[in-house]
Amino acid sequence: MKTKILLAAATAGVMFAGSVLASTLDEVRARGKLNCIINTGLAGFAAPDDKGKWTGFDVDFCRAVAAATLGDADKVNYTTATGKTRFTKLAAGEGEILSRNTTWTFSRDVDLSQTFIGVSYYDGQGFMVPKALGVKSAKGLDGASVCIQTGTTTELNLAEFFAGNGMKYNPVPIETNAEAQELYKAGRCDVYTTDASGLYATMSSFDNPADHMVLPEIVSKEPLGPVVRHGDDQWADIVAWTLKAMMAGEELGITSANVKSLAGKDNKNKEINRLLGKDPLQGISKLGLSADWAVNIIAQVGNYEEVFEKNLGMSTPLKIARGMNQLYRDGGLFYIPPIK
Amino acid sequence: MIFFSNIWRNEKSREIIVQIFVLLCIGWFLSWLISNVDANFKALGKDISFEFLFIPAGYDINQYLIDYNNRDSHLRAGIVGLLNTGLVAVFGIILATVLGISLGIIRLSKNWLASKIAYWYIEFTRNVPILLHILLWHGIIINTLPHPRKALNLGDVTFLSNRGFYIPKPLTENGIELVYLFFVIALIFSVLFFKYAKKKQDLTGVQYPVFWINFTVLISLPLIAFFISGMPISLEIPALKGFNFRGGMHMSPELAALTFALGIYTAAFIAEIVRAGILAVDKGQREAAEAIGLKSSKVMKLVILPQARRVIIPPLTSQYLNLTKNSSLAIAIGYMDLVATLGGISLNQTGREMETMVIVMLIYLSVSLSISAFMNWYNNKVKLVGR
To answer: Which one, out of A253, A333, B108, B208, has a CA that is 20 to 30 A from the CA of A111?
Structure first.
């Protein structure tokens, strides 16, 4: 119901919105706030805390962009979107960034006229089942009822996985992660499938997480990352380099604790100087950012490692290992272009 | 100048001028809307194209009345969704009509308790939003019925679980043709007998129990054929295999919840319409009918209802339309109707929001207009013929 209204509103938005041609950065600065589209609720990625403040991995990325562009990580308006409404909302201009565990695919990038600015989390689709079901492998799911979020790549992967293995299933389509939990707990479906990170997030919010398990098979590649609208390269660069600055922070050993002192002195590693604005970084003015942009990001939000550990890591209920999501030198997939 | 002021003073020409002006305004607004959409689509780098309808949909649908798999096109997925919308609308309309008419009559009953129960039912039901009805029924089915492995077992052939209701499926075998043939014969006999009885009554006043005779013939003739030809119908009994029941006929919790919710909600409105229709018949009609000695059931059937029908049908049409349109709330519980398939998943997988929304709106419009046209035709048939 709600989704439909939003959808209609977004469609109406496309109908009525005047053609605004000011740059996205100017718009954000004039407003004094960044509009960010996030998940309706997924523990660890975007969920309200006990004070009603949005927290999570995707939320922190919005905050990092606000810190880079406005100098204040708190100047963000959050708009939530379901898997279905997110692209419509981004296209209709309800936000400057879509930071909502969105999988980068060819047709989303090309056909939907959006720009994926990089991967912030490498994920893959998995299956969660109650241990009582006695299933040990996804190959043993023939004939099962599967809860699945509509409007996601998971839906297509699922169809391909079951067809590829000659198995049948009964899809139970749902709108949000919260609804999925309800149906899964009530036993409407045997299996819940979504990105593995989402499964861990969901499991962490159960009363008895130990009664459930994620099956070993990961059936797809899900590179998740922030998305912006096509057509404003300056804005796309700002968002892309915000992510890279967070990763560079981890690589160079810059944390929210030491960033201020590192920024104040001349470091031996000149890359630190350039990132933190001590030495000139050619072209930063073309991005329309001030020299202390990266200092603001890391001081107010943290480097990639800090953000990951705070929201998803071993000290959180989600207990997700870094896995592929670490720097190449540690065996992960993050390889950042030089800050030169 | 005088010519123009004359035109303006003439009532007829003034009306025409005003209408032309209004038409121009609407036309201007529409063209502005279209050009604005066009401009914004250009700014977003999007085009309008319906080619996506013919590429494979890639997703599965859990209920299909025509063959469907994930390699079929978005168009076919949309048709599957449309048929699902049609299915739940038909179920809902049947339930709402039967329940609504009964409640409307009970509401007028002289029995105080029956009348009050109907009254409270109507007031409770129609004052709660339909979305809550849907969520409530879905919640009840999902949360109170057991898991398939512990399904409620009704005589080892029918099973109720929170994955839906499973009933045996009749399978026809060789020799079934005889049963069909006997049924057709019974049907022809019924029609002829009906005509004969009517003629006889018109001529002599003798009445036959037409309904009971026809009913008996329609049931017994095919039944006799069924036994003669060696019982050519077998039942496929649903059985628990692996995670779920297989075989038999299956009604999903979503379809069941939606049918109950739409039927029960709309029935409350229909009950009021029926009541209003009956009360609209002048009480002199009833008194006159009773005065000539008609039984009270005959009074209702022959005198009151035919007249009430004229009052009932137009608002009843709106209720059928409402029910059909309300079925689009199926999306709240994941029933795969037209909005969920073409207007939901296809929209999302292809990013063609304008195109899919326009198609879905046009389909709903044409379905509604067809129902409306049919009911108008029926209304014209039963309306009072001017004498």
So the answer is: A333
